[in-house]
What does this fold into?
Amino acid sequence: MIYWKARKQVLQYLKSSQDYELTYNNPNSTSRLQIYTNADEMSLDNRKIVSRYTFILNGAAISWLSKQQEIVSLSTTKAEYIALTYTAKKAIWFCNFLSKLISPITFPLNIYNDNQFTISLTHTKLDQFYARTKHIDIHYHFIHKKTKDGLIKITYCSTKITTDILTKPLSSYKFKPLIRTLGLISA
It folds into this structure.
């Protein structure tokens, strides 16, 4: 029964969104690459992190991901920190690719995130929060190093983050503004 209801909702969504298309070079958009990342470890029964990101260029999404990680999260901060690491790795690779394909992308890359403690963690000495972060594996501190090196800049944005559209059930009044930020416009 629950699967039937989910299938019905998917079909209703597809029917209602069939007239939308990705529109690049939106006159109201910025030509600078915008990167949004978020994580959620509470929505799944197994407590594994769902990391998600969206890259927006010229007013439309050019890359996005919503993926369950193999890690069980102990805190929201850890989940967000790990998502930032995955996003930063992808962003650096992607910008190097775009630089060769189109034109050079300037650093630092600005990644938007909605967790203020996670953002502060990327800017402070790691030993300052050692008691609260010692469970975060060392290879996730990649984001800390790239922030310190000036390649990545993490900026706070509100909880209505573009990546929410990838995994959260949203009401139409929250959903519609987010699809516009992805560059989806009714034809």
Observations:
- The chain has one domain: 29-186.
- The mean pLDDT is 79.
